[in-house]
Amino acid sequence: MEVENDWWALGQHHALATPLLDWTTSPYVAAYFAFIEDIKEDTGLRAVWALYKPSVTAKNRELTRRKKGNNKPETLEIFSPMSNENPRLVTQGGLFTRIDGITIEDWVRKNFKGIDDSYILFKITIPSKDRRLCLRSLNRMNINHLSLFPDLYGASIFCNTDLMIDKY
Prior knowledge:
With about 170 residues, the protein is α+β, with helices and mostly antiparallel strands. It has one domain. It has helices at about 5-10, 25-35, 55-65, 85-90, 105-110, 130-140, 145-150, 150-165, and strands at about 20-25, 45-50, 75-80, 95-100, 120-125. Helix 2 (about 25-35) packs across helix 6 (about 130-140). The termini are far apart. About 15% of the residues are buried.
């Protein structure tokens, strides 16, 4: 692996604090990660976020073209690691975003001002009370820790979840 972000991506999938934010190309995998944790202080809702990649890519090109001097444009980097050395990333359909010093929400608001930005970044909320039903349904689609984490850790969490959720 030669690219810095590839190293960050590998580390992130092994609990390293990184400047990256995990995404997936699958809304079902995103829902799984939204529901798998049994949150004690729950707000009553779980969230799945979606980012429209073509608009972000076009905006990044525009910002790069308009850049002045030696200043690096404030782009929202979206990338998939070039290496397939991370089986978790492959099975999860993983990709990442990276931006310094600003949240993605603020970046979208700033760069898509005057445009309906609800189609660039949006949030889908699902009631937490449906957690077990969602996890059961996702498991029937083979979206579970066993398939998303193809290692001993994934097998262990899958077994624990099977014990906790009736008819999993």
